[in-house]
Batch of 2 targets.
Target 1
Amino acid sequence: MIPLAEARALVLAGVPAPQATEVPVAGSLGLVLASDVRSPSMVPPFDNSAMDGYAVRFEDLAHVPCVLTVSEDVAAGHVATGGVEQGTAIKIMTGAPLPAGADTVVRVEDTVPADGSVEILARPGPGTAVRRAGGDVAVGAPVFESGEVLTARHLGVLAAVGVERVQVYRPVRVAVVSTGDEVVAPSIRPLAPGHIRDSNRPMLIGLLAEMGLEAIDYGIVGDDADALRDTFARAATECDAVITSGGVSMGEYDLVKRVLTELGGIELWKVAMQPAKPFAFGAIGGTPLFGLPGNPVSVFVAFEQFARPAILTMMGHTSILRPRIEATLAEDVSTDPEKTVFLRVVVEAGPSGRMARLAGGQASNILSATARADAFAVIPIGVSDMSAGDTVELEMFRWSNE
Ligand code: AMP
Ligand code: MG
């Protein structure tokens, strides 16, 4: 058996480097910047008011209360026709350009309007409620660095500074294939004796979608060497990575194993982990292939431990592992001391801190419990029994509000 850390290092070393490309900002959500971004313009583009109120000259407020003549109103999106002269004010709305001559805005709450004039009740500090041009981003300023993951907030900033296209690492096209004579499309009704619905493919397509990727669906291939060989070879030619499930364990009909080894540089591993001990990895003509086990929980665990970090690496991400935090076990557990064990747990706020409770049955076919889970409780090699109250390390794949 290969230790998990070693297996993962081999996988990460075996995937191609990310490739840069240019895309419109609108299509860049979730991608990783491949070059630094500098701002071509200022944000805000002009001095403007941060409040609804009156644009004034600070020096006119030496003695408050005082009365200033209101020469005009200026709304957001409009420009005052004149400036603020001594003893006058311009009524101004949030976001409207600060008129010439003004240096301070008195908020409307501190004023009493009259006909053609305004009484100023309070004296704010000089420059109050004025947002300076370039106060957020200056022209030429570094905005984002290569390697940053573009979130919705980044897209907002890029729009504000006027950047329309960005250099990113291109999204990875991932093929998903299910295997097995017993596996049928989830839409099949009624289920024939011995058949089961394909849960791996919808799950894997969804896991990839959660990473911002559109999976390429290669359907279900039965336990037939020619069909498996053709599909794997075609998927490897057409996509950047291939994920298969089923057929890599010890069974006699595990043709996937045979076909994968025949196709080239793919190895079958026994990883010292539970679930998901059998795992195949390698490349067909340079395209990495992840041969996941068949049981749905094993598929999820192997995807999380191998495929997800590897595909994130291919997408240019440098933070590729789930966050790890500690929690208190809510119940006793017994695990295989020769393996890193991934228990599926629900995480709850308890009276004395964060608690981890088994999400349900822990057999590798019980996907319903995995669906309810928030995290893996990672039980390291060498540990066989843990008790309620012990501290356990969690790998979070869902954060809920604690
Ligand atoms: P295998 O490794 O092919 O022997 O599969 C191990 C177990 O996973 C068997 O019980 C299979 O029926 C089940 N299995 C394989 N593929 C899928 C799938 N796509 N969806 C649900 N269960 C599957
Ligand atoms: Mg099978």
Target 2
Amino acid sequence: MTLGAWDAQGVGAVVVGERRSIVGGNWKMNTDLAAAVELADNVVAGCQALLSECDVAVFPPFPYLQAVGRALGNHGLLLGAQDVYHQPNGAYTGEVSSAMLLDLNVQIVLVGHSERRHVIGEDNELVNTKVRASLESGLHVILCIGETLEQRQAGRTNQVNVAQLVAGLQGVGTEQMRQVTVAYEPVWAIGTGQTATPRDAVAVHRVVRRTIADLYDEDTAGSVRIQYGGSVTASNAADLFAEPEIDGALVGGASLEADQFMGIVRAAVES
Ligand code: PEP
């Protein structure tokens, strides 16, 4: 599998300390076909000029992947899927394999999003299986981790995030880490309007990076991009991106409005 235009933009050549930001728009179970294509058209029009300095991905609902992929064309935006199943094919009613996603030119997939973990009930073991299957198929993975409010209040933030990270990356080789981005998304910040302070986000990002260094090596840890996610908007993005530890954002609600989303991408480029 080739990352095509993405590779050509230099993602494969990330240098320690010079990580290229990545902003993703997770549309969740929103839009209809016409609205998805219109949103994709608007995002292409608004982001095209910024793609030399930032990776931008959109994650539409499964049924609209093909139409959104057409709208994205060859402009350099990444087509992403919100989830994937680890089996290649067979009697798994309702599931979608990485081969099917690759057929639609999907390049990047979310795994372990908090809504998959806490609403659908995915555990660390399933998340890890999906991570490994996706990487083996050649997809780039955004591994999502994050603590609940109760876990934070109980002083377990680092413990929970490290456990999710270590479990999610089990069996993932050093080379494959080039295909991995981590999204730190505190559950209490997702869709609540309650963004983590840059200081709180950075504290966890440092722990994540240190854990990757322990699991792999310093170069790998320095190259892996760590996004923040949780109520990021065009108004608060610049403060978050001013932190060198924060390599972009995974955006839910604000990605449904092209202007808001472009404001976030612009903030990433200007940081
Ligand atoms: C998300 O879905 O990953 C997310 C961060 O959502 P929101 O931006 O709406 O908090």
